[in-house]
Amino acid sequence: MPAPTTRITIFASFSGQGGVERMLVHLIQGFCDQGYAVDLLMVRATSAALEQLPATVRRIPLRPGHTLLASFALADWLRRERPAVVLAVKDRAGRAAVMARALARTDTRLVLRLGTNLSAALSTSNPLKRWLRLLPIRRLYPAIEQIVAVSKGVAEDTAQIAQLPRGQIRVIRNPVITPRMKALAAAACPHPWLDEAESIPVIIGAGRLQRQKDFPTLVRAFSLVRCERACRLLIIGDGRGRNALEALAKTLGLRLGPDGDLELPGYQTNLYAWLARADLFVLSSAWEGSPNVLTEALALGIPAVATDCPSGPRELLLDGRYGPLVPVGDSKAMASAMLQTLDAPLPASRLQQAVTDYSQAASVSAYLDAMGLQPGHVTTG
Q: What's the whole-model pTM score?
């Protein structure tokens, strides 16, 4: 392995336990494996995912703790360090990077990674708020040399709202499947419901307990499935929606806790160990970019049901070939698809075929190419 003398600068905010943070860590691990050194410029650093970063990564906190205001600190960094390329993660970081480069007057190449369908995320915003979000996107995105979208749906949506040529946006799949995935999935059984001796099917949903993930629809669908057959539901994740979910479950007559039908065990560091032992995974989201947890479930051979939300599930499940797609917010359709899949699950080997493009190695190679760098090649200097 060559000495890590060429540095990659990444500008991001680590402020949660979600898929964006995990995928960014996977990318950074891959960059380091290729012999590159990484400077991680962080607006916030409160994610457990940071514990998985390689020790060689140089962490640089930027103040203040707001992405757009941090553009001044980023400009100082660009003037001082003059990196060849900056990978910005998420919309606000991309806009801040454009402003920072203009302030610094450097020729740094900018690459922006977008992981969500912005139109769907803004669909419930009032017209003024939506306009205030779209205007800077349309003014600043044309200055970015390369925009990376995590799915075709995100790419098409970005081209439309940013009024950019589709050719300026490149689709690179998330680095979901890593060399460590199988070992992590084989770790000790994390919950008594998932013990091999248990015969009652376990359904899993996972993600932040917030509006985007629409877990209330999953709970309503589960209550319908529970009337038809014995089963249990685990919803893994933390968030402000926890109390509302528990209240809904009680209203529907579901029993909470390890002796009941539904449990919310909170955020789990090793989600793979849970997913690998599930009988069914359900994605109930109102919108996505490219749903990592659905990709992980398929990679582990777990049958899945997903909403046909923008964007990602239809691409992953190949129009329903690898699992049913149901309308967003339709608990009856979801319950029917869940029963159907529990009764006739697809073979694990077939499900795994759906996600062969989501490997860490393929994603890292594509990102290096987007940044004008070469896999496994490090220059001196």
A: 0.91
